[in-house]
Amino acid sequence: MKITFLGAAQTVTGSCYVIETPSARFAVDCGMFQGNSAIETRNFETDNYRPESLDFILLTHAHIDHSGLLPRMVKKGFKGSIYCTAPTAELADIMLEDSAHIQEMEHDWKSRHNKRRGEPEEQNAEALYGAEDAEETTKLLRPVDFGKEITPAPGVKVVFRYAGHILGAAILDITVDEDGKSTHLVFSGDLGRPGALLLPDAETPSTPDWLFVESTYGDRDHKGEADTLKELAEAIAYSYSHREKVIIPAFAVERTQEILYSLLILKKQGGIPENMPVYVDSPLASKATQVFMKYMDHLSTPEFTAEDFAATPDGFIRFTQDVKESQELNTMKGPAIILSASGMCNAGRVRHHLRHNLWKPGVSVVFVGYQAMGTPGRKLVDGAKTLRLFGEEVAVAAKIFTINGFSAHAGQSQLLEWIGSMARPGMNIALVHGEPRAQEILAGLIKERFGITPFIPEYLEEATIEGTAAEVRAPSPTRTRPRVDWNFLAGELEQRAAQVRARLARIDDIPWEEQTELRDRLVEIERDLVLFLSRL
Ligand SMILES: [Zn+2]
Ligand SMILES: [Zn+2]
Predict the structure, then answer these.
(1) Which of 7, 44, 289, 478 has CA atoms 20 to 30 A from the CA of 332?
(2) Beta-carbon contacts of residue 533 (< 8 Å; ≥ 6 apart)
(3) What is the pLDDT of residues 252-267, one digit of tens each?
(4) CB–CB of 357/249 below 8 Å?
(5) Long-range CB contacts (< 8 A, 24+ apart) of 103-110?
(6) What is the pLDDT of residue 309?
(7) How many Å lie between the centroid of ligand 2 and the Cα of residue 65?
(8) Which ligand is nearest to the CA of 13?
(9) Ligand 1 centre and the CA of 59: distance in Å?
């Protein structure tokens, strides 16, 4: 059988592995690439997936970095079934609808922007996908029970097992029979933290021939849960004392509900001031909370019931109902806690809250999730002094808190423990869904502890697997990492600088008022250059 790594290879987003056996061609996950514009262009490279020839797709969980390209596949000819657990199907339904909306808006915005600048229609003349594609995708979702074996194609058997990552998330336990031999593959999907607030722990399948394991936190452990609640309480107390807001960028699914659950616990313990309301300002998060309440039997929430999540408009937790209510939060005086999406601040309403609050001393911005490289969230966590929002550099005066203990991902020791419970001589390990540094460190530890040297696939790499043996074909580097022509760009810049100097010799021909405008413009360009230099 052949496996092609179409995403989450030496990066955390875009999860997709295409497997070809004699009887079927199928994908495990089909996630969106998220980060900067260079990485996001991969979302449009649909030919790599050949969606029309995929027989079916197995979906580990509803997160967009695992499900976000499904509507694109459907738009481009995929017609098979998408197997996932029942809560995943319901969450994917609302998340893909939301994602389609974002894609359509982004596309409109980009084309308007290009037209205004008199530029020709941009190369991506179409939206990645739209609401109709998302709707068609939802019709293909086939709910499967945890622990029950399905046979989506002859010779392919699949069992979904608890991954403990988000509601509905599964580890895929796959057996492929070809030429009378069977090969056992396990895909961890995203692996949760044991003892997480809302979820049961991840299961351990029997030792596979090939283990494809995520490595998001391959380089570090999380802090304890007790600290986590304390850190959250500290951020709240800090902004309360300044009568300012606490902004919590949070993924709408799981993290928001986990934070709500934590806030309920803190409230019970007296860790939140009386007049500090909590607003959930994300239509998606509000809908997702409904799904969580429906599937309480998949959760472990010893302290509270479904009713605690469902707040009344006057209660401790309030869900904004429309855009007007969301905008009112910007002008509202006094302390409050605002949970809003997206978790990495690259889209959604949280960007408005940042624009209105980031520059105010006394505000807290609390990061409670992973921040991928290139995202605005990562820049803030890394100590950026300004952040570009809606075409404007906004100063960062707010206090930035990073709380690692909420992670929906296993930390380094937890990954090692889970891997160790399966590791036997002869088992192969492929590290996926992680950044290179984390993968390198984890690979070293796996080698040291279990004597297995992990394989770290690259984007578009192909591996032909026969039992425990594999032959790997590396993709051409020009395809995976097109070179940036820095020499050319630097040369252009030098030429422009020389032109500026030459034209300044005739500057007195221009009226003084206009000169002052040009001066301001040049100062702006210079400031941009300084910001650029600080990143080199
Ligand atoms: Zn996930
Ligand atoms: Zn993921």
Answers:
(1) 289
(2) none
(3) 999 999 999 899 888 8
(4) no
(5) 103/127, 103/128, 103/129, 103/130, 104/130, 104/131, 106/347
(6) 66
(7) 5
(8) 2
(9) 11
Assign residue 29 a region (left: φ > 0; alpha: ψ between -120 and 50; beta: otherwise): left
Q: How far apart are CA 274 and CA 261, in angstroms?
A: 17
Q: What span, in angstroms and rounded, lies between the C-alpha atoms of 518 and 528?
A: 15
pTM given for the model: 0.82
Assess contact for 340 and 250: CB atoms under 8 A. yes
Q: What are phi and psi of 509, to 5 degrees?
A: -70, -15
The DSSP code for 207 is P
- Can you tell me the distance from the alpha carbon of 346 to that of 351, in angstroms, rounded to the nearest whole number? 8
Q: Are 160 and 168 in contact (CB under 8 A)?
A: no
- Measure the CA–CA gap between 44 and 485, rounded to whole angstroms: 22
Number of neighbouring beta carbons within 10 Å of residue 142: 16
Please state, rounded to an integer, the average pLDDT across all residues of the chain: 91
Other beta carbons within 10 Å of 356:
18
Q: How far apart are the first and last CA of the chain?
A: 43
The amino acid that residue 289 corresponds to is: T
The yes-or-no verdict on residue 311 having pLDDT over 70 is no
- Alpha carbon of 239 to ligand 1 centroid (Å): 30
- The amino acid at 338: I
